[in-house]
Amino acid sequence: xxxxxxxxxxxxxxxxxxxxxxxxxxxxxxxxxxVTVAETFPLASNAEPSSYQPSYDARxxxxxxxxxxxxxxxxLWPALAQHAAPIHxxxxxxxxxxxxxxLHAAEYRQDALGYVVDNRxxxxxxxxxxxxxxxxxxxxxxxxxxxxxxxxxxVTVTTAGETRELSARCxxxxxxxxxxxxxxxxxxxxxxxxxxxxxxxxxxxxxxHQFSAYxxxxxxxxxxxxxHGSPTRASHQSALVWTxxxxxxxxxxxxxxxxKCTRLQKRFGWRLGRFTRIGECNHYPLALTxxxxxxxxxxxxxxxxxxxxxxxxxxxxxxxxxxxxxxxEQFRLAGEQGSNPGELAVLQRYQQLHRSDxxxxxxxxxxxxxxFGSPLAPLTAARNxxxxxxxxxxxxxxxxxxxxxxxGGRKARIQRPGFDNSKALNHD
Length: 428
Hints:
The protein has 428 residues and is α+β, with helices and mostly antiparallel strands. The chain has a domain at 3-53 and 121-190 and 287-367: FAD/NAD(P)-binding domain (3-Layer(bba) Sandwich). It is built from twelve helices and 20 strands. The protein has helices spanning 17-29, 65-73, 77-80, 119-130, 180-184, 246-253, 257-268, 316-336, 344-372, 377-392, 394-404, 421-424; strands at 8-13, 35-38, 60-64, 84-87, 89-94, 100-104, 114-118, 136-138, 142-149, 152-159, 162-173, 190-205, 212-218, 221-227, 237-244, 275-278, 282-290, 295-296, 299-301, 307-308. The strands form three sheets. Strands 5, 6, 12, 13, 14, 15, 16, 17 and 20 form a nine-stranded mixed β-sheet that branches. Strands 1, 2, 8, 9, 10, 11, 18 and 19 form an eight-stranded mixed β-sheet that branches. It has a three-stranded antiparallel β-sheet with strand order 3-7-4. The longest helix has 29 residues, at 344-372. The model is unreliable at 374-390 and 409-428 (pLDDT under 50).
C-alpha cells in the first residue's frame, strides 16, 4: 500500500489542546501531509472566538514564554493574546521560612515570563484556524485500536455507534493522561502517585495580583496562584492550584465557600490580602506518569498520553508543546527525504531529540515536590538557603528562570543585554 492508497497520512487521536495544536502545526509547516483528527466531543456549532464570553470558573493553562514563541510561530498568538494574562513576576516561597526567590520579566528584557490563558479560548482560537486549513475532522469519533500493515497502519474508528477502519501512515495518540488507547496498544507506563490531589479553582482577593504568580510550598503540600483575567489591567482574580491529601480534600470540599477561603488564607498567607471568593472546585489525583518508550512503528504518543507532571510548576503542557514541534520537524524532514512519517527511524529521532527535555523537565518538577515536600530539618534548612541563593546568584537565577520560562530542556538562553534570542532558539 502506497501513501496515495491510504485515507490519510497522519491520524491524530484526540482534538484537545495538544492534538489541535499538532494539527495546526502540521498544516502550517508540513502542508503536503494529509491530516485527520478524531475527537470524542462534537465540534460546537458556535466554535468561533466571537462567541467567547469569559467565565469566572473557566479553567486555564499557564503558557511559558517559550510556548508563546511557538504559538507566535504558528500565527496564533495575536488571537490568543486577546485573553492572555501576562506573568510579569514569579514569587517562590516556603511557608514559615525566610527564603524566597523572585523573578521579574524586566530582568530578562521580556514582556512576560509566561501567560495564563483560558482553555476554552485557546480551543476556540485553534478550531477557528483549523477550519481554514485542509485538516479533516471526525467528531464525535473515537480511535479504539490500531494494527500495522506493512508500511502503514489500520486504525479502528467508532463514529455514532458505527465502527469502520481507516488507513494511515502514522497514528499520533493525543487523547490525554487517562488514555484508553495507550492502554489498548500496550504501551508500558511508569506511574508514581504523589498521594495527593490537586484542587483547581479561581479565587478573588482583596488586593490585585499585579500580574504576579506565586508558588508557595507548605508543610501540607505546594500551591500556586496565577494571574487570571484581563491582559492589560491587573485584576483581583487568580487561578489556584492547591495540593491536598485525600482527607484534606474531602474536608475542604465539604466546607461552605467562606470556610474554604479561611482555610486557604491560613495556607497561603496575606500577600494578596483577604480571599473573598472561591469559584467552582475541580480536583484530580496527582502522579508522575511517564512512558519510557512512546513510539513504535506507525504510532507515537504525545502530550499527557506520553507524560503527566505535577501541575504546581506549570511545566506539563509547555513540555508537550515542545515535543509536538519536535515531532512536526521530524515529519517535515521525512517528507523532504521521501520517507514515511510512520517509519520507526523517523519516530525514534523524535523520541531521542525530545528525551533530554522530557527527563530534565520531569526531574525539575518532581524535585521541587520531593525537596519542598519533606519536613526533615536538614532539607528545610537547605531549601531555605537555596531559595535565598537564587535571589543572590545570577547564574542559578538564570537557570531557574529558564525552567520557569519553558526553556529548560532546549538549547536556548533567556535574553540578556546585547543577546539576540531569535538566533538562540532551537526547537531541538
